[in-house]
Design brief:
The chain is mainly alpha-helical. It has one domain. The chain has 4 helices and 2 strands, in the order E-H-E-H-H-H. The protein has a two-stranded parallel sheet with strand order 1-2. It is flat, with a radius of gyration of 14 Å. The two termini are 22 Å apart.
């Protein structure tokens, strides 16, 4: 089965996201779900986005990259190990990384 890195939405790591991860696990997948907001959840999208801005998008990215650093050590191709979570690296390319840490 697959090893999945699941990122939550701007509302935080809600019960719905946890439930989805559990369904993937029940199907036999290994699922990592980093809590980018350190336990905080928000009922309104605007509140979640404001929290991310307050904490700092760099901090949010770093929290998301930690599971990749652990998992990536088992990946076999050099291309899968390339990329960076540092905002300076993706801003130059004009976009945020999808799953590149």
């Amino acid at each position: 089965m697959a090893e999945v890195l699941l990122f939550h939405h701007a509302h935080g790591l809600t019960a719905g996201v946890r439930s989805f991860a559990d369904r993937l696990r029940a199907a036999g997948h290994t699922v990592h779900v980093p809590d980018l907001y350190a336990g905080a959840t928000f009922p309104e999208l605007s509140q979640g986005l404001a929290h991310a801005k307050e904490v700092g998008f760099g901090t949010v990215l770093e929290r998301g990259c930690e599971p990749l650093r652990i998992c990536r050590s088992s990946w076999s191709t050099p291309a899968s190990r390339s990329g960076s979570c540092r905002p300076s690296s993706w801003r130059r390319r004009g976009r945020a990384p999808a799953v590149r840490c």
